[in-house]
């Protein structure tokens, strides 16, 4: 369960006849509430609704609460982590958990409802009820695609960034592994598609929001990333979409494309033998700032050239732009509308194991289907081998509370 505790407080306050806004932490606290007694860096609780009397305090996980079991009334979380208040001992998920947000300044406090038997601290809200990363499964492809596979096992991989700025490697076998301990929230664009350094391993590229610099993170071949290398000294904040594309030029090296915000032009940045990018080439004269997603898909139509999917922001339509040597061909409509309910659009190669490039998506709050609705659904759209897609199939429902995937 990931219902904000504040919602429960409002209900409880009404039941108890507590009309003071201060009780819910949005105004001045009642004079008798000794919230200031809670030290910074601790989670504190009282057996009274007004925060008076004996105080419980901890900054470590508590699998059981001893004499404090089922007695938490007023609580405040002055730590920098999320506090998970579990109804059962040992962090059991059977009865769910309530999330209390980090609040080192103690600006908000309220009532836990009493039914708390264990307490743990986590880096993201979703970890109160789920693992830090979602599950991801991909079938083994009949042949290596040259992209979408960071550990070269012929399973399509996904890198996921969580709300704490950590990076997780999902290898396609329903497991996940931490490959970036933090700092990834400083990046405003993340992309990967093939080998940029020439060592046969897939790499990742990221744009730093504060500087507009572009960084290459070489793949290690295990799903992890090596020390970053600067490949763009600045100005990349002027680009709306930055997408690792694959080999568009036909020289055997992965290339990058980017749409310029101010002009709507689309540029090709060819890869080089050193991992750097060559001089850009104009491949789209305008209108590309009307697209809010560009996906390097690999060869979707069997002509030997990697292709591009692009989502039109105004209409939610999805278009195929077939690859040509150093250019893109005329577009074809492959999705008539509704694609704006998708959050991430991922081209990670063959997911279904039939040798064709597939599309993976995650959803935002506008998505509705019989199998799943709202934020956090994941779908796989199997490629037909013609550039078009089969109907999407919901393959996951635990993709909420994250901060992007690529």
Automatic annotation (TrEMBL):
Residues 1-33 form the signal peptide. InterPro entries: FG-GAP, Integrin_alpha_N. It comes from the Bacteria. It holds the Pfam family FG-GAP_3. Keywords: Signal. The keyword Signal applies. PANTHER family: ATP_GTP-BINDING PROTEIN (PTHR46580:SF4), SENSOR KINASE-RELATED (PTHR46580). This is ATP/GTP-binding protein. The lineage of its organism: Bacteria, Bacillati, Actinomycetota, Actinomycetes, Kitasatosporales.
């Amino acid at each position: 369960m990931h219902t904000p505790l504040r919602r429960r407080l409002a209900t409880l306050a009404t039941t108890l006849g507590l009309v003071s806004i201060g009780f819910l932490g949005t105004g001045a606290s009642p004079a008798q509430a000794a919230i200031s007694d809670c030290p910074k860096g601790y989670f504190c609780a009282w057996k009274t609704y007004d925060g008076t009397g004996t105080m419980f305090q901890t900054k470590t996980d508590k699998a059981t609460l001893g004499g404090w079991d089922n007695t938490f009334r007023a609580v405040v979380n002055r730590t920098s982590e999320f506090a998970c208040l579990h109804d059962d001992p040992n962090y059991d998920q059977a009865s769910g958990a309530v999330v209390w947000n980090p609040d080192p300044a103690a600006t908000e406090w309220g009532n836990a409802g009493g039914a708390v038997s264990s307490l743990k601290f986590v880096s993201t809200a979703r970890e109160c009820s789920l693992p830090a990363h979602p599950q991801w499964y991909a079938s083994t492809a009949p042949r290596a695609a040259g992209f979408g596979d960071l550990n070269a096992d012929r399973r399509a991989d996904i890198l996921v960034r969580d709300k704490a700025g950590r990076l997780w490697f999902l290898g396609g076998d329903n497991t996940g592994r931490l490959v970036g301990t933090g700092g990834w929230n400083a990046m405003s664009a993340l992309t990967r598609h093939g080998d940029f350094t020439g060592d046969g391993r897939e790499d990742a590229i990221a744009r730093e929001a504060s500087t507009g610099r572009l960084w290459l993170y070489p793949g290690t071949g295990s799903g992890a990333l090596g020390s970053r290398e600067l490949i763009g000294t600045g100005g990349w904040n002027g680009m709306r979409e930055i997408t690792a594309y694959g080999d568009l030029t036909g020289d055997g090296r992965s290339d990058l494309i980017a749409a310029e915000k101010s002009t709507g032009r689309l540029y090709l940045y060819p890869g080089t033998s050193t991992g750097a990018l060559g001089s850009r080439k104009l491949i789209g004269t305008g209108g590309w700032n009307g697209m809010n997603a560009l996906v390097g898909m690999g060869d979707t139509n069997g002509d030997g050239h990697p292709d591009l999917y692009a989502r039109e922001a105004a209409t939610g339509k999805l278009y195929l732009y077939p690859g040509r040597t150093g250019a893109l061909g005329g577009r074809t409509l492959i999705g008539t509308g509704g694609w704006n309910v998708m959050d991430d659009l991922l081209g990670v190669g063959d997911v279904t194991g039939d040798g064709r490039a597939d599309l993976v998506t995650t959803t935002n709050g506008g998505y509705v289907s019989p199998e799943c609705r709202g934020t956090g659904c994941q779908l796989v759209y199997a490629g037909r081998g013609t550039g078009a897609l089969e109907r999407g199939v919901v393959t996951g429902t635990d993709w909420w509370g994250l901060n992007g995937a690529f």
